[in-house]
Amino acid sequence: MEGQKLQGMVVRRVEKELYEVFIGPQHPGSGHMRIIVRLDGDVIVEADPDIGYVHRTMEKLSEVREWLKPIPLLERMTIIDACNITVPYVNALEKLMDKSPPPRASYLRVLLCEINRVASHLYGFGIFGVFLGHSTMYMWAFGDREVFVELAEILTGARLTHSYPIPGGVRRDMPQDFPEMARRAVRYMRGRLEEYRRIFVDNPVIVKRLEGVGVISRNKAAELGIVGPNVRASGIRYDVRLAEPYEVYDELDFEIPVFEEGDALARTWVRVEEIKQSLSIIEQAVDWLERHKGEPIIPKEDYDKLPKLHREVYEKTGRVKLLPAHATMKIPAGKAIARGEMGRGEIIYYVESDGGTTPYRVRVVTPSARNAIVFKYIVPGHRLMDLPAIYGSIDYFPPEADR
Amino acid sequence: MDVKAVDKVYVGNINVAARRARELLLGKLKLGDVIDWATTFSLWPVHLLTSCCGAEFAATWSPRFDAEQYGALPWVAPRQTNFIIIEGTVTRKMACALRITYEQMPHPKFVIAMGACALDGGLFYNSYNIVRPWEVVPVDVYIPGCPPPPEAVARAIIDLRRKIREKKLASRWLIEGWRHDRDPVKPADDVCKWWRP
Amino acid sequence: MVLETILYLIAYPPLWQVLILGFVGALLVAMVAIWFERKAAARVQRRIGPYWASPRLGGFMIIVADMIRYVTQQVIIPTTVDKIAFLLTPVAVLVVTILPLAFIPLSPHELYWPVASMEYSLLIALALTTLPPLLTVVLGWASSNKFSVIGSLRESYVITAYELVAVLAILAPAASTLSFNIVYIVEAQQPVKWLAILNPLAFLAAFLAVLMSTSAFPFEIPESEHEVVAGPYTEYSGILYALNMGGGYIRRFIYAIIIALVFLGGWAPYTPGLDPFTGFIIPSLIVLVKASIVVLVMSFLRAVYGRYRLDQALDAAWRLALPLALLGLGWSIILAYMNLI
Amino acid sequence: MKPEELLELLKHALGGLAKEVTVRKGYVEVLVDADSVVPVANKLKELGFDHVKSVTATDYPKESKIRVTYHVSSYLREDLAKPILGLSVDLPRDNPVMESLTGVWRSSEFQEREVYEFFGVTFRGHPDLRPLLLIPELAERRVLRKDFVVKEESIYEGVPHRYQ
Amino acid sequence: MPARVSLKSLKRRGGLFEGIKSNIQALAVGVKYFIDPQRSTLLYPKEYIEHRPGYRGFIVFIKDKCISCAACARICPSAAMKMVRVTEVDPKHPDKPRQKQYPVINYQRCIFCGYCVDICPTEALYHTPFQDVVYESLADMFLTLEAFQLEPGRPSVSEGSPVVYEVDEERGLIKRRR
After folding, report:
1. Which has fewest Cβ within 10 Å: B123, C50, C139, E119?
2. pLDDT for C261-286, tens place per residue?
3. Using DSSP, how many helices (H) and how many strands (E) does chain C show?
C-alpha cells in the first residue's frame, strides 16, 4: 500500500464513501498542527492528528548546552506558561545538586506560577471562544490576560519569557508596590469571572455546543493517560500539587476542583474554578511575601560567594547577579525525575547527568503531548463542528506538544 | 500597429489597450497613490501560526494593543489576505505550509518576520529541524525579540506601511506584475521535498 | 422620438432605483454595515476597532481602503475550478441580490416608485430574496475545494430549513392586512399599529429566519471558519470575493428593509405628502433608518453569541422557528378576523 | 504510598521476572529483560498502574545499549499516584526491537512512535508505527542518538569579518 | 496545609425560563459594555508605553567598564553575543598596542533573557526599557561595537507621548498619561 511507502505522511487510500479533509496546518481551526479527518456525511469516523509542525528539538538541544541554558530553551515550549514549565526542570537540577531554594524564592516561584496559570487558562479561554465563534470571549480573555502579563512583567522584566527560576533561587525580588497591585488584579479578576459566566459559560449557545460533547469517562481518561483539567473533569482526583507537592504548595490553602461529567462543559468549568483557586493562591503568596520582607531569595552559601558589586546590585534593585561559574556549572552524575502542574496539566522532566557541564539526557513530556491522543480516540463519532469544541476544551497547545 | 481589422470590426490589441489604460490611470491620474494608501490601511494577515510567537500575535489583536486600529484584520483564508506575519520558528515541516500559503495569496503581498527564530533561528539556530524563513518567502520587515512585544508588532506594521507608501509597492505591482526589490528564495520543490518524495 | 425614448429610459424610475439606490446605495450600506459590525464588536470587546485612517470618522475610511484593496488585488483563478461558473456566479450573486430592491417601494406614490401600486410586490420581493443562496451553492461547487463543497452543502441544508420559516413569517402581515401590496401593508399599520407589536411571534420568527438565511450570528454556519475556512468563498480572491462579501451584507439589508416595512410600519408615524421631499425623500429615509437599526441589532449579536452547530441550527429552525411562524400566521389570521388592524 | 513500601510490593508481585528493582530519591526503577516486558507490564497493570506518563529512551554508545524506560503511574488508585515507577528495558544498540506495550497501556501509543523516530527502536505489535514529529528524511537519521551531533557555535564564530 | 479535593457538579439546566434568562443575561452584559466599553487601548504611534526600569529590552554596552572576561558570550543561550578582538592603543602607553576582546550582539538571535546582563561582573551591560524597534534588513541587526554602545533609536518617542499602565480594581488595566 502506498501509505507504508511514504511513511504515512500524506497519501493513504480512503474508502470510497469517506470524505477526507485536512484540517491544518494553515487552517483557522487547527493551530500549528494538522488533523486528517475522514468524514461520513457530517460525522467524523477517523481522526489522525499529524503533529510535529512546531517540533523544535528541545531535547537534543538541551543535551549540547550548559545546564543553565535549557531554562530559556525549554520555556519556549509554552511561553504563555513559562514559569510552570521551568520550575520542574530547576527542581530536577536541585534534586541532582542537593540544593534547595530558600522559602522566599519558593514563594516567588509559586506566585509567578499561579500568575502564569491564570494567564494560561485565560489564553485557553480566548482560543476556545474563538473556536466557537465567540469573538468577544477571545478579546475579553486576552484583554484580562494582559493584567496578569503586566504583573509578570513587573515581577520579572519580560512579558512572557521570564526565565525566572535558577537552580537555588530566583533571579529577581518582588518590587515594593507589587503586592497591592496583585491584590487589585485578583479582585478585578473575580468580578470579571462572573461576567465571563454570563456571556460565555452560561450562554445558551455555548452550553448547547459543549454539553455532552467529547465525553471522556473516568476509565477512558485513565486508559488514554490524559492530564490536567481534562482528567479532573472526568472525576479523577489527580493534581501534582496534591500528589507530590513541590515548592511550597503544601503550605498553601487551596482546593482542587473535580467534576465528574467528563464533557467539554465540565472541562470549561474546571478551568473557571481553577482560576478562582489560583487567584486565592496569589493572594496568600503575596501576603506571605509581605510578611517576610528582606529574606534571601538565593541560598545563603551562594549569597556569601557574591562579590561586593553583586551584593550592591541585589540590595538596590533586587536583581540577583549570576556568577561566571554559572556558565560552566557542573552537576553531579545521577538521574532525577521531577514533575509539576502546568496550566494544561502535568509536566514531567527526566534529567540524567554524567557529571559534565551539559545534561546527558533531558526528557520532557508536556501535557499537550499526552493530550494529543484525545484527537485519535475521542473525536471520532462526533460531528465536524464538534472538532473545534473538543480541541478548544482540551486546551491543546501544539508548540508544547511538539517540543 | 495596435489596431487591426477583424471581419470589418476594428479591434484594438487588448494587451496594449490594457497597458495604456494602466499607465493613464496610475501615471497621470495618480490612482497609484490611492491604491498604495488603501493597501496600507488594509493589511489583513493570514491565519498561519508557525510557532509560539503566535501568543504575542494574538496579544497584538487583544483589546490592549488592538492592531485592528491600523485596519489589520486577521483573516482565515489566504486567498483574501495580503499579509503574512511569520510568528517565530519555521520548522522543516511547516516551511512547506508557509510557502504554499504564501503562494496562495494574491499579489501584492507582504511578509513580516517576527521574533528571533524567524530571523536567524534564535535559540534554535543549530537545530536540525529549522529553516530560516527568509529562505522560504521574501521578507519585508524584521522584528527582533523572543517574543517581540505587541508594540513591536504594531511598529512593524507602521514601518511596513511607510515602506509601501514610499516605494509604491502596491501600485508598482499593478504596473510591473512583480516586485524587484526582494531577495530570491529557495525553489518550492526544495522546501517541500519531504512532502512529495 | 428616439431622443424621447432615450430620455425616458434614462429617467425611468426603476432604473434609477436599481442603479442609484441599488448599486451606490447598497455599496454604501454594505460599507456602513461592515464598519458598524466591526466597531460595535470592538466596543463590546473593550477595544477601538478601525481607527487610524480617519480618526474623526471613526476609522470609516479603513472600510473604503479594504474595498479599494480588494478591487485592485490580483484575482487568482485556480486551475481546478469550473471557470465560467467561478467567474460569473459572484456577479450573478450581486445582481440577483439587488433585484428585490426594484419591487420594494419606499414611498406610497406611484410617481416616485412605480411598483407602489403593484398588487403582489411583497410576494415578488420575497421570491427574489430566496435566489442568492442557490447561487452560493453554485459558488461552492464551482470552486472545487473540499471546504467550499462542505460549506455549500451546509448552505443548502440551511436553505431548506429557514426558507419556509422566512416566507411564512413575512407573509403573516399579508394575512392580517389581507393584501400582498407592501404599500397597503404599511398604510394599514399607521400610525403605531406596527405588526412587530401586534404580532411579536411572527416578528421573532422572521428575525430568526433572516439571521439564519443571511448566516449572521449565531447561525453563521456555512462560513464557519473553524471547520470550513471561508466556506463557499474559500477560493475567491480580489474583486470576486468583494462581490460575494458585499452581496451578503446587501442581502441582509434588503431583508431588513422588508422587515422594516412589513413589521416596523415602514414610514408609519409619518404621513407622506405629495411633493418630492415629503413624498419621496422623507419616507425613504425613515424606512432606511429603521432598516439600519435592524441590521445593527443583527450585527450586535455577533458580539454576544457564538455559533450553533449545524444540526442544532436546523433543529432550532424546524422545532422552534417553524412553530413560531405558524403561530404568528395563526395570530395574524385572528387579527384579520377580529378586524384589529 | 511510600517508595519503600512500593518496593516491597513490587518485589513480592513481580517475583523473578524483574532483573533488578532499585529505589533512589523517591524514584523506583524496575529493570527487566526484553522478553519479559509484557508479562511485567501486565502484572503492573493488575497492581493498578493504569497509564504511562512518559516513554523515555536513552542512548549509551559506550555500553552499546539503548535503555527504554516507561514511567508509569496510576490515576484510579490514589495511593499509587504519588510515586513514579520506571519500567526499563535494555536493548542492543544495533538492532533495538521490543514488544510494544500499547496493548497494555494505550497511553503509550504516541510516545512509542516518538521513540521509534528518534532512536529507531522498533516496537513489535504497535498498531500504527510511523514517525510522529519528524519528516521522513530526518526520522531515518535517529536524531536523538548520541552519534547525531549538533554543533554549538563558539563565542568567536559567525562575526562578520569587517567587525574585527 | 496541603491541597484538598473539592468535588463539584454541573448545574442542571433546562426549561424555557432558564433559557430565556440566560439569553437575557448574555445580552445584558453585551449591552453594558456597548454603552460603557471601559477600554484602555493603546493608540500606538500616538502613545507608547513607558516600561518600568526593570524591563528587559535592548542591551547596551559600556565599553569603559568591560574587562573582556567573555562571560556574557559564554552564558548566552542563543549564541547571540559574540566576542570581537580589537587592537587598542592606550593613550598612556602609545607604543604598546593591546589585544582586547569586546562583546557584540546579534539581534537576529538575541532572546532578551538578560543572562548576559546578570552575569557581567562589572555591570558593563544594561537593558533599555523598550523593545519596539524593527529593522528592514538582516545585516543591520548584527550590531557593530560602536552601535552596541549606543541605545537604539526608538521611533515612538518622536511620534508620541508616553503612557503607563496601572492595575485597577474596577477596570483591569488603565492607561495613564505621564
Report:
1. E119
2. 888 887 877 777 777 777 777 888 88
3. 17, 0
